[in-house]
Amino acid sequence: MEKFDVIIIGAGAAGLFCAAQAGQRGRRVLLLDNGKKPGRKILMSGGGRCNFTNLYTDPAAYLSHNPHFSKSALARYTQWDFIDLVNRHGIAWHEKTLGQLFCDDSAQQIVELLMKECQQGNVTLRLRSEVLNVERDEHGYTMQLNGGTVQAEKLVIASGGLSMPGLGATPFGYKLAEQFGLRVFPTRAALVPFTLHKPLLDHLQTLSGVSLPTVMTAEDGTVFKEAMLFTHRGLSGPAVLQLSSYWQPGEFVTIDLSPAQDLDVFINEERAGHPNQSLKNTLAKVLPKRLIEVLQTLAVVPDVTLKQLNSRQQSELVATLHQWRVQPNGTEGYRTAEVTLGGVDTTQLSSKTMEARDVAGLYFIGEVVDVTGWLGGYNFQWAWSSAWACAQAL
Ligand code: FAD
């Protein structure tokens, strides 16, 4: 049997960073992953450029049954700390929008950074490792792996959520939490596109690829001002991904398709100058032409000139375009979701160390915990912050 001080399960963002930090603090660390290579989600992230943090990281950008839980770790290891680390590794980055920081070159650089940090900490990394069972006794945690038996005083679960099973996601962390008597909140795909019911989908499918700025509101009042994208299955784009975290099946979302322009004022001004202009061509000045065409087939946009448009028609049209109510059929689910809502109940963990209060030596970090960030680098920042906080206690 091989003995270590710490065993970490999951060589994703949180596991790699925690392993590196604990190793550099002198702990003998074994890092296990079921995949062929470490950090697979990092490599896929941010369109291959990894949106590794957000300048405006704040606990308010995280969903959890316990909104206070993330505060301590986010304050102790901040976005500025991770930016410092990125700078020390000479990785060039840029802000794309809304404080979202991306590598100029490739997400591979972030994985290389984490691997170098692990090497500095003499971390033992074992890939293609399956954990067959975990037992706890007075010596700590003993694990049967596909390649032998390992033991450590401390066990860190960094096995992530359920999104993208193709990238190695498993319910391991949730099951292990339950094995040791911890509560796990039901999980749900988040940061995920909406699917639409027929016949609306049939009409909107022709818009696949069309994107426009929107303001989108969930039934609970949560608002995001970001772009929306029509897809062949329904709706996507940052506004939709963000709102999906706040949406429950059966609920409507309200979409302002023209947030920058008061359409009532715009139509009145246009009518004054060009009364014989078609409504369709008028709206095409401020909205995608293909969208107007589809809205005409849906009878939202009447086939009239501006002088023919009566005030009832105008107010109905303006109300629909500024407050388009759509009832999604569902989401695309874990197959395409970026993250998983729910997970290990934080009231049972120390917000300072991530250790289970009633199970000494057992820690949960990263996405397996019931802390889920907005789109925009917030989820990686949670991975770094929770991993760092945990590593200080190992
Ligand atoms: P993960 O990174 O998922 O790592 C978990 C690891 O555990 C994996 O390597 C997995 O193989 C391993 N594992 C699972 N089960 C087992 C088991 N039974 N035995 C052994 N190993 C196991 N967030 C951002 O902030 N910015 C982005 O740009 C961004 N882009 C994303 C793009 C995509 C396509 C996806 C899917 C997610 C994206 N995210 C992004 C979210 C972000 O990737 C996750 O929140 C983050 O990776 C969570 O880190 P983690 O270490 O907790 O889990």
From TrEMBL:
A Pfam short name: HI0933_like
Keywords attached to this entry: FAD, Flavoprotein
Domain RsdA/BaiN/AoA(So)-like Rossmann fold-like, residue spans: 5-392
UniProt key word Metal-binding: no
RsdA/BaiN/AoA(So)-like insert domain span: 188-339
Lipid metabolism as UniProt keyword: no
Cofactor requirements of the protein: FAD
Signal peptide (UniProt feature, chain positions): none
PANTHER family: OS12G0638800 PROTEIN (PTHR42887:SF2)
Protein name, per record: Membrane protein
Organism: Winslowiella iniecta
